[in-house]
Design a protein that fits this description.
about 450 residues; alpha+beta; Glutamine Phosphoribosylpyrophosphate, subunit 1, domain 1; 2 domains; six-stranded antiparallel beta sheet; 23 strands; binds 1-O-pyrophosphono-5-O-phosphono-alpha-D-ribofuranose; binds glutamine; binds iron/sulfur cluster; binds magnesium ion
């Protein structure tokens, strides 16, 4: 599961430097490219491929004296330098820079319409269409809120965006609220994909509401909710994507993950001697499972913390998993192991780990997954492999159990997941096949 993206925007002192720090805090959301645009009477952009620390060298923001900046970390499998964000967009005599988290569902038909009118796009990324649509409507209406109202009507799908336009920040979250977006206020106005990226600035934070638009300029910040749809927050932010120390739409990611483990232990207990997690993202649910079941939690798998995206040397998938994770024999040898992870996508990680644990002496391996099986594709910003690659798309739980070589296997139910997160205002389309209406109503 890839393609998250993290966005940032601020009007404050030393805004470009703060964008840099916030992007480091959002690095988990995208590691392929990073960039910052700032305002100095016009738009200046510094961006490139790689991690934030690779793109921005010690002096690359020297001379970036500005009180207005936006930033982006990107996750995408393709894309040229021009498509690393912020993206500069021109239309109808205006220019803006935009950062975007999400994916549009009607990108191709709307883009074609613009092309038929004679507009020439400069990139192949959906983000450009949002900027073009905004500028086109702004050129007629001369009002940022009214232009964004038109964008909401025209452009469907998932988008949390920040734009740098005419010495202002224009911020919006789609009316479904697929992707998170947080607003912080203190010595200025700040926006970030997750509030955990704003904590270091000592701000009061709240969620940007679905359908809410902000126009922020020196001395003034206005916001209005200008579009309404049924709320459907991406449940995978809680299961896997977001940082555990983030609060998204009023719900702590850590607590939601912990409760997923608790619910799972209630629904599908296991006879085991020790509970171990698949690090990193499986840890919090494993703790919840252990506490609820009364089985001790131990660290049975250790993750090499330097393995990130820098590991590009070609190697067999098996060797990759062994480099990334290794078992602690003293924890698993001779024991009945309950192995907890947040999710299974293709099943490659789990198959390898089960074997690894058996090789290290585990007597039994009972796999417990703190989310329901992923069976359907996502069109709202998450690059789920095709259905053919999803291990659960057409298989029964029993077949998956055999495939991964476990002694038993259970997934959290959809109801259990809703109880754990504490709301049913969730997009769960990749689990249930029910896609939020607004995103496909075009
Ligand atoms: O079924 P698969 O296709 O093998 O993928 C599933 C694994 O991928 C994710 O973790 P990831 O390896 O991204 O790392 P993390 O948990 O350390 O963030 C997820 O948490 C599962 O562990
Ligand atoms: N992961 C994302 O949110 C991607 C944003 C945008 N669609 C892009 O490809 O750059
Ligand atoms: S389909 Fe799945 S990954 Fe995509 S937005 Fe909905 S819950 Fe999130
Ligand atoms: Mg994982």
């Amino acid at each position: 599961m890839r393609e998250k993206c993290g966005i940032f925007g601020a009007l404050t002192q030393e805004a470009p430097k703060k964008a840099y720090f916030a992007l480091i805090a959002l690095q988990h959301r995208g590691q392929e490219g990073a960039g910052i645009s700032f305002w100095n009477g016009g738009i200046k952009t510094v961006k490139g491929h790689g991690l934030v620390s690779e793109v921005f060298k010690e002096n690359s923001l020297n001379g970036a004296k500005s009180r207005l900046a936006i930033g982006h970390v990107r996750y995408s499998t393709s894309g040229s330098l021009s498509e690393v964000q912020p993206l500069e967009v021109e239309c109808c005599g205006y220019r803006l820079a935009i950062v975007h988290n999400g994916t549009l569902t009607n990108f191709l038909p709307v883009r074609r319409r613009y092309e038929e009118e004679g507009f020439r796009f400069r990139s192949s990324v959906d983000t450009e269409l949002i900027g073009v649509s905004f500028l086109r409507h702004y050129s007629e209406l001369k009002d940022e809120f009214e232009a964004m109202r038109k964008v909401f009507n025209e452009v469907r799908g998932a988008y949390s965006i920040v734009m740098l336009f005419n010495g202002k920040l224009i911020v919006a979250r789609d009316p479904v609220g697929f992707r998170p977006l947080s607003y912080g206020i203190g010595d200025g106005h700040y926006f970030a994909s997750e509030d955990s990226a704003l904590k270091m600035f000592g701000l009061e934070t709240r969620d940007v509401e679905p359908g809410e638009v902000f126009v922020v300029e020196e001395g003034d910040a206005y916001s209005k909710v200008i579009a309404k749809a049924e709320r459907r927050h991406c449940v995978f932010e809680y299961i896997y994507f977001a940082r555990p120390d983030s609060i998204i739409d009023g719900i702590s990611v850590y607590c939601a993950r912990y409760r997923m483990g608790v619910e799972l232990a209630r629904e599908s207990p296991a006879d085991g001697d020790v509970v171990i997690a698949v690090p990193d993202s499986g840890r919090t649910a494993a703790l919840g499972f252990a506490h609820e079941s009364g089985i001790p939690y131990m660290e049975g798998l250790i993750k090499n913390r330097y393995i990130g995206r820098t590991f590009i040397m070609p190697a067999g998938r098996g060797l990759k998993v062994k480099l990334k994770l290794s078992p602690v024999k003293e924890v698993v040898d001779g024991r009945r192991v309950v192995l907890v992870d947040d999710s299974i996508v293709r099943g490659t990680t789990m198959t390898r780990i089960v074997k690894m644990l058996r090789d290290a002496g585990a007597k039994e391996v009972h796999v417990r997954i703190a989310s329901p099986p992923i069976r359907y594709p996502c069109y709202m910003g998450i690059d789920i492999p095709t259905r053919y690659e999803l291990i659960a798309a057409w298989r029964s739980i029993d077949d998956i159990k055999r495939e991964i070589g476990a002694d038993s296997l259970a997934y959290l139910s959809v109801e259990g997941l809703k109880r754990a997160v504490g709301t049913d205002k969730l997009c769960m389309a990749c689990l249930t096949g029910e896609y939020p209406k607004w995103a496909f109503d075009f």
